Amino acid sequence: MPLRPVRPSPSFGWIAAAIMVALFGAIVVGWRQRERDVAATAIAVVRAPTIPVARIPPLPEARPTTVAPVAANVAAAHLRTVYPLLSDVTITCRDDRCTLSATIRPVTGQADLDRRQEMLLGGLAAALAADGYRLAVPFQMDEVADNLFHIRASVTPR
Fold it and tell me: Engineering a disulfide at 133: which of 21, 79, 118, 128 sits with its beta carbon 3.0 to 4.6 angstroms away?
């Protein structure tokens, strides 16, 4: 019985061609890479005129602006003006510690409620800071009647 010759599959030729193209590409890339790695042997010296550097004078140191504390009764009157919901506002001082005491009247509408919230969330501290006082937080707030609050806070002159 005669033996038939073994024929390679038709895709074998395509695979061999792809491998040869890949090897050729790798050789070309490597050859070009070697050309780039050749070091330059010439050095050029260029003389250019120096550019004068502008001298900028230093800025003066920024000093925080401090407000001299006003009299306690003036600060209390200012609080009553800024926040009309406050009544019975008193600021009493002993040595370098002061105490703020005030009553927050009941709100009558949404505008008063918003104004009270603004006052309690930093407006009171900002108004006191404008008069030269620092409000210590947290402060004490008690409900003495239905929607009627009394606040007591420690205040220090700056």
Answer: 128
Q: Per-residue pLDDT tens for 32-66?
A: 666 655 555 666 677 777 777 777 777 777 666 67
Residues 86-143 have pLDDT tens digits of 999 999 998 888 999 999 999 999 999 999 999 989 899 999 999 999 998 888 999 9
**Per-residue tokens: 87:** 């009544």
Confidence of residue 73 (pLDDT cuts 50, 70, 90): very high
156 CB-near residues (< 8 Å, 6+ apart): 96, 97, 98, 133, 134, 136
Within 10 Å of residue 145's Cβ, how many Cβ atoms?
A: 9
> Collapsing DSSP states into helix, strand and coil, what is residue 23?
helix
Count the Cβ atoms, other than its own, within 10 Å of residue 131. Answer: 22
Tokens 């919230």 — which residue?
Answer: 117
Cα angle 146, 147, 148 (rounded to 5 degrees) comes to 90
Other Cβ atoms closer than 10 A to 23: 10
Is the CATH code 2.40.160 the one for domain 72-157?
no
